[in-house]
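WP5 quarterly update. Target: Short-chain dehydrogenase. Source organism: Hyphomonas chukchiensis. Length: 283 aa.
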Amino acid sequence: MNTIAPQIHEDGLPGSEAELSPKPEWQPRYPGSGRLEGKVALITGADSGIGRAVAVLFAREGADVAFVYLSETEDADATCKMIEDEGRDALAIKGDLGDPEFAQMVVAKTIARFQTIDVLVNNAGEQHPDQDIEDITDKQLQRTFQTNIFSMFYLTQAARPHLKEGAAIINCTSVTMYAGASELLDYSATKGAITAFTRSLSENLVGDGIRVNAVAPGPIWTPLNPSGGASPEKLAHFGEGTPMGRPGQPNEVAPSFLFLACEDSSFMSGQVLHPNGGIIVGS
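Structure tokens (predicted):
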């Protein structure tokens, strides 16, 4: 299948954190303790939102960080500075992970710069709300799957030769995989695929000492939401349906990724963590 161009001009994707108000909270909440000292992390979608919070937290814990972003260069430059302010090296790579050749290039550039990959975080994603399944075009359906799940296959395939015993892969799924979302049919379907991919990949790699887990955030305040087609009325009440009555912040999700990346979770693989504001879902 040919790669379909991202719909940036159609609906504002992927969205700028620099222009978002109020600003998401990405700052790590605690001093680092060296849990990723000497490690190298490759993170997708880390120019903003959850990916940015994960990148900066990983840097605080001692990791050098390569990250991929689609088009928001101002946000990516800011993330680089945040990583460097933590005393670690940053490498930002611009491009579309829906293209398997680009995924190969991402890994090649990361290895050329850092010589290894210890943690792979597949976080990049996009969504397009639709009231009716008949409104989902073939172009949108293919694009959503390319960004949200095909990219994970492409990047994991490219990184696999460089992942040694002790490496960790962490995929970003969603509460929508468990609870459903009436206006996010294609997005939710990809998140179901990501959870199945996580569990199956864990079974495939656990014998080689590589752990594979996932994080399923609930409603988190990031550029994905205002740029993904949500109405102003819906945004005004975003996250209020959680038991905690509010949306989460990226820095409330990032510690779940850190836990799964470091030795604290050495006896966990094929599992999903749920920072979702108290929504009870099946595991």
